[in-house]
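Morning!

This is the sequence you dropped in the shared folder:
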Amino acid sequence: MSEPLENEIEEELRKKQLKALWDRFGLYLIAVILIIIMSFGGYEFSKYLGYKNSESASDQYEKALAVLDNENNSDAIDIFESLVNESNGYSGLSLFNLSNIAIKEGNKVLALEYLARAAKDKNLSKKINDFAILKSGYIMLDNAEITNIEDKLSSLLNSQGPFSFYAKEIIALAYYRDNRYQESSKKFNDIANDASSPRNIASRSKIFSEQISSYDNVK
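The structure's back. Tokens below.
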């Protein structure tokens, strides 16, 4: 079998596998995957930034992470709470970790409150502030009204920053969640056809848009 033909067959199989995955789990699976990726990325980024501040705060922060690794949420919360008023980057980073703990414990309202504080923390870079807003959008995707999600993400949606297309993707997912398939497909299609969209998001959005368009109630 020639290599081009093999590649074509493999590509067709991948498409069928993707469709089967889509039909079984839908966009919610993708949303969960994105939340996991963002949570992991925030954790790793926070560890990297942590070494740039005071030694005392650094020691406390590392201790909190170690305690958290041992699933002792209560002690970890106490340490992170003691750091949120520090005049260094550890204040915001602790808020991120407190938000993660709140999510694990099922308290999304508290998680959003921590992220709102992180988004306004001047000790963090604008990119990390924006990351807090974006993560809030993923949490709100669960059950918040679309208008509330759009309001939360407005600063990202109207920017040319690195998270703007992730924010647009969240909005498209929100319309899908509410069974507003035509609007969801259009929003995904707009992302896919935007020349400035990152390749991975554009490719994913194209697949989403085409798949949603195939639904009987969208035709």
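Headline: The mean pLDDT is 79.

More detail when I'm at my desk.
O.
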